[in-house]
């Protein structure tokens, strides 16, 4: 072999080795760094999108937080309307309300009777307590005012099923059959 031929082999071998080192360096060191950079950029874009979404949700929650007192009042009203099931079903409190209303409207609420609880057919956490009441008054208008108050203003949720008005000892007598609602779902007690 001639020296020239040896130089050419070394030249081509060196060139091939240089190309191989550059290609290997590209695929083993540089390209993974580009891929890692692209992944970080993609993750950053995703995180920024999530951040914008969460900031919007935080603004919505802050707006809702401003309404917390309104929500507490609504909860208190709902708890009064459908009290949590306990041993008395809050009937003594209800009877006191009826007596107070009777004095307010100049009627006599008597003849209270309650039968066993019934499960609601539509809501599994609600039971119904059938109640019968007798209301007597001199004026029928007073009885009607009391009934209207029971249906629209007093806090306890009641459903009047039957009403029978007739003449009684005091003047007028109304016999009511109604249902009071009780829930088995306990909620936190709040103060309005």
Automatic annotation (TrEMBL):
Write down the superkingdom of origin: Bacteria
TM regions (residue ranges): 9-29
Q: Which UniProt keywords apply?
A: Membrane, Transmembrane, Transmembrane helix
Claim: Transmembrane helix is one of the keywords in the record: yes
What's this protein's name?
A: Type IV pilus assembly protein PilO
